[in-house]
Specification:
Largest sheet: 9 strands, mixed
Number of strands: 25
Enzyme class: transferase
InterPro entries: AMP-bd_C, AMP-bd_C_sf, AMP-dep_synth/lig_dom, ATP-dep_AMP-bd_enzyme
CATH class of one domain: Alpha Beta
Distance between the termini: 43 Å
GO molecular function, one term: nucleotidyltransferase activity
Number of helices: 17
Bound molecules: 5'-O-[(R)-(benzoyloxy)(hydroxy)phosphoryl]adenosine
Strand order of the largest sheet: 2-1-11-10-12-13-14-15-16
Protein name: PI synthetase 1
Shape: globular
CATH topology of one domain: Rossmann fold
EC number: 2.7.7.58
């Protein structure tokens, strides 16, 4: 296995192979098989409806792209940062790299210089594939600037519409082409790509996913969702995210011979038009998008959504009241999905009673998934009681990439991953998410590490100390609230200034504080740590619809309301925000 990754113990791996979970089939080879099976059927459709790619064409496209990458020195074991919008090109790039045994490292299009720089560094990537013009952010200009500062320059490939003249070291993805070469000898038990962790640490960790484990995940979830060649999947969430990529999402649909349609934004105008035009049968979204779509449905959108059968909702807690509106108001079957880039997935099932679908996050997708609900000492709690979710199984990692110290804390000695989620199991084994102990804000579906944002806020000269907590929000579930203790004798910086600072430091927009609270001192726990629970309770009380505000100097919004943008393609459900100039 790739250096820096933690393999499953040999006896466990042998068990997964014997049970048929791991079949020794590399993902690049699977595409070849799908092309033989499904030939001239359509595999991918771009949002504009003009780019339509059959299985056979996709197979050829990947071969030529792989040859072009190989000619530019990209080979087996090398890492490539992939940061692309939802387009057919994204899939072609992934499979071209899989065929070479090169490893995509998935970044979100919303990521900026700070995240991109860290990921290039941590992964040791030799190349970065990024979007051209028309995405609302100049990724090319940012890459030019970053290149000047970087000790080790990487090749840059520009997808979509590339500027007419590209700087030295930049290549238009459209020019990457070559006559197919013999595919690399890829071991399916080795790493195929890296997903990003939803970060408890200041900087995201890389999650190695193997060909074997991911192929299994796609197959098993496609089976549960009943996918077949008539399935049409709408990729609404950013494709680099585990949920749309393979739960069953894009890869699960291709495995079944169905069609994948790409949406460039989660806005109902775009998505409903695509559902109608392409007869979409299923999609996966976050609760914030459910809010958006229900609001549009209530207003009457004039689109025929009759083809849509299944709506998977996950990545953040779906409240029962919202869940209950999905069937009646959108005319689709709801499936709750709890998941993590690290592995474990739980789904509610087609034949579950309404109660289970509306109130639980379902049960594991694999009979080999092991779940332990543990107390703070790691001892299992009795069934029905809440504790931390620990898990291991045939598609759950055994260690983050190049992170031995963190791994020692994040995994038990017997290989269970400590998720940081607080859950309970119902009498019939359904998982219910009750909260979390990890220091993460789940904004829409985006995971924001409190530690990361606190570090950047602390860089402001007028900030003595910062603490970031989740603030309840009716549409986003949670938003980012920063508590600030100003430097002695200094005025508290206004929120707009803090947001500008974080942006200038290259942080993705979805991590910027939505609200800033100024206090003289932080409440402390018995162990003299900042009592974040107390801060979270304070902001919850202040933002509760009926209760008056309490302590503190109050928010420093000074007329500046944070925008609603999320990485989920610019969800603006919370709307009504005026954004300060960048
Ligand atoms: C998905 O993956 P990540 O890696 O972005 O985030 C994982 C975390 C979980 O540990 C949990 O804290 C939270 O997101 N989460 C949920 C949830 N699904 C995920 N919290 C409450 N309810 C849910 N249904 O978010 C992800 C990956 C694959 C499929 C679906 C979601």
């Amino acid at each position: 296995m790739l250096d820096g990754c933690v393999p499953w113990p040999e006896d466990v791996a042998a068990k997964y192979r014997a049970a048929g979970y791991w079949r020794g089939e590399p993902l690049g080879m699977l595409l070849g098989r799908w092309a033989e099976q499904y030939g001239e059927r359509e595999a991918l459709v771009g949002a504009d409806g003009c780019s339509r790619v059959t299985y056979r064409a996709l197979d050829r496209w990947c071969d030529r792209l792989a040859a072009g990458f190989a000619a530019r020195g990209i080979g087996a074991g090398e890492r490539v940062l992939v940061q692309l919008p939802n387009t057919p090109e994204f899939v072609a790039v992934c499979f071209a790299l899989f065929r070479l045994g090169a490893l995509p490292v998935f970044a979100l299009p919303a990521h900026r210089a700070a995240e991109v720089g860290h990921l290039l560094e941590l992964s040791g990537a030799v190349a970065h594939i990024l979007p051209g013009t028309g995405t609302g952010y100049d990724h090319v200009a940012a890459a030019v600037e970053a290149r000047a500062r970087r000790a080790r320059p990487v090749q840059v490939f520009v997808a979509g519409e590339a500027p007419a003249v590209l700087p030295e070291g930049f290549t238009a993805l459209a020019d990457v082409d070559g006559d197919p070469v013999a595919p690399a000898d890829v071991d399916a038990s080795d790493v195929a790509f890296f997903l990003l962790s939803g970060g408890t640490t200041a900087l995201p960790k890389l999650i190695p996913r193997t060909h074997d484990d991911y192929a299994y995940q796609c197959r098993v979830t496609a089976g549960i969702c009943g996918l077949d060649a008539d399935s049409v999947y709408l990729a609404v969430l950013p494709a680099e995210f585990n949920f749309p990529f393979g739960c069953p999402g894009i890869l699960g649909t291709l495995h079944a011979g169905g069609r994948v349609v790409f949406a460039l934004s989660p806005q109902p105008e775009e998505c409903f038009a695509l559902i109608e035009r392409e007869h979409v049968t299923f999609t996966s979204v976050i609760p914030t998008i459910v809010h958006l779509w229900l609001a549009a449905a209530a207003q009457g959108h004039g689109r025929d959504l009759g083809s849509l059968q299944l709506l998977q909702v996950g990545s953040a807690k779906l409240h029962e009241e919202l869940a209950a509106r999905i069937g009646p108001e959108l005319g689709v079957r709801l499936q709750q999905v709890f998941g993590m880039a690290e592995g474990l997935l739980t789904f509610t099932r087609d034949d579950d009673p309404a109660d289970v679908v509306l109130r639980t996050q379902g049960r594991p997708v694999s009979e080999a998934d092991e779940i332990r609900v543990a107390d703070p000492d790691g001892r299992p709690v009795p069934r029905g009681e809440t504790g931390e979710l620990l898990t291991r199984g045939p598609y759950t990692l055994r260690g983050y990439y190049r992170a031995p110290e963190h791994n020692a804390r994040a995994f038990t000695e017997d290989g269970f991953y400590r998720s940081g989620d607080l859950v309970r199991l119902t009498a019939d084994g359904q998982l219910v998410v009750e909260g979390r102990i990890k220091d993460v804000v789940i904004r829409g579906g985006d995971k924001v590490s409190a530690t990361e944002v606190e570090g950047h806020l602390g860089a402001h000269p007028d900030v003595q100390q910062a603490a970031v907590v989740a603030m309840p929000d009716p549409v986003w579930g949670e938003k980012v609230c920063a508590y600030i203790v100003p430097a002695p004798g200094r005025p508290a910086p206004p929120m707009a200034a803090l947001r500008r600072l974080l942006r200038a430091r290259g942080l993705a927009d979805y991590k910027l504080p939505d609200r800033v609270e100024v206090v003289d001192a932080f409440p402390l726990t018995g162990l003299n740590k900042v009592d974040k629970k107390a801060l979270a309770a304070d902001i919850a009380a202040k933002t509760a619809p009926t209760r008056p505000t309490t302590a503190g100097h109050g928010p420093t919004t000074d007329g500046d309301t944070a925008g609603g943008g999320g990485s989920a393609g610019g969800v603006t459900a919370a709307g009504g925000g005026r954004e300060e100039a960048a």
